[in-house]
Amino acid sequence: MTFLGLEEDPQKAKIVFLPAPYDATASYLPGARFGPRRLLEASPYLEFFDEELLCSYKDLPPFLTLPEKELPVAPEEALRTLKEQLAPHLKAGRFPVTLGGEHTVSLAPIDLLRQDYPDLLVVQIDAHADLRATYQGSPLSHACVMRRVREMGAEVVALGVRAISEEEYLYAQEARISLFWAYQLKKELPSVLKTLATFCAQRPVYVTIDLDGFDPAEIPGVGTPEPGGLSWYEGLAILKTVARYQVVGFDVVELLPKDERSAFFAAKLVYKFISYLFCPQRAFPGGA
């Protein structure tokens, strides 16, 4: 199974897709382990021509989709397995796109990329801060992933957050993590995008997209569907802003494919962001 259903030549590939079928720490709705497969299955049914950028997959670097590998239940072992899969492709200079699976899987590519980019900035689209020290007894829960990223030494900018514990809020204040609440994005999107651009202009960027950052009216198939999230076009405005700078990888996680439109949404989001990053027509006509 390949992204867009295309034939692939591993020798020519410049973009690598890593399926990460893992949801062992899911706390509300399980099933995100099926997300990567359903995203890939939906992807051949996208329109391959982008009306915004006026390009198609033929204008993009060649893809390579890695085979989906069953992961151990223990999160430490699952992350180790993912890093073993991905590391040779990073050494070969391929751009990594991780397909989740729960948010914990993001730690694998981020940890590897920090070895080459010690000043890495992680831009997070998410309904939740994911800044807990531990959750349900695990420091590697999906609810702790950005706390672990911060402890790696990476700076974090989070957008779309609308569910946070008091513990996380106090930690974010202490660690000076930039949180842009969902209500701010609704009221002040142009201002937020200008601030985001100043962060991204200073260092290499990794983007982690938890699909529950979007409103469940747009994509209901997520593990924790918090109301009041981003619209499709608000999300694209964020990605267009980030794509102007040095993005070194991204992931799309937390797809729970209980309905067909959620998988299609996720597949199109991946394709749009790749197009923003690599399409030769990068003037973004009509964009933010």
Briefly, what is this?
This protein has 288 residues and is an alpha/beta fold.
How would you describe this structure in keywords?
single chain; 288 residues; alpha/beta; Arginase, Chain A; eight-stranded parallel β-sheet; 15% strand
Descriptive account of the structure:
- An 8-stranded parallel β-sheet has the order 2-1-3-8-7-4-5-6, sandwiched between helices.
- Helix content is 35%, strand content 15%.
- The longest helix has 19 residues, at 182-200.
- With 288 residues, the protein is α/β, with parallel strands linked by helices.
- β1 (15-20), α1 and β2 form a beta-alpha-beta unit.
- It contains 8 helices and 8 strands.
- α1 crosses α8 (260-278).
- Mn(2+) 1 binds at residues 103, 128, 130, 210, 212.
- GO terms for molecular function: agmatinase activity; metal ion binding.
- Its cofactor is Mn(2+).
Record field, number of beta strands: 8
Q: Which spans of ≥5 residues are poorly predicted at pLDDT below 50?
A: none
From the alpha carbons, calculate the radius of gyration and give it in angstroms.
17 Å
What is the average per-residue confidence, as pLDDT, rounded to a whole number?
Answer: 95
Our estimate of the beta-strand percent is: 15-25%
CATH architecture classification: 3-Layer(aba) Sandwich
Element-by-element helix/strand order: EHEHEHEHEHEHEHEH
Q: What name does CATH use for the topology?
A: Arginase, Chain A
Task: Give, in spatial order, the strands making up the sheet with the most strands.
Answer: 2-1-3-8-7-4-5-6
User: What's the oligomerization state?
Assistant: single chain
Total separate domains: 1
Q: What is the straight-line distance between the termini? A: 34 Å
Count up the helices: 8
Estimated helix fraction: 25-40%
Superfamily at the CATH H level?
A: Ureohydrolase domain
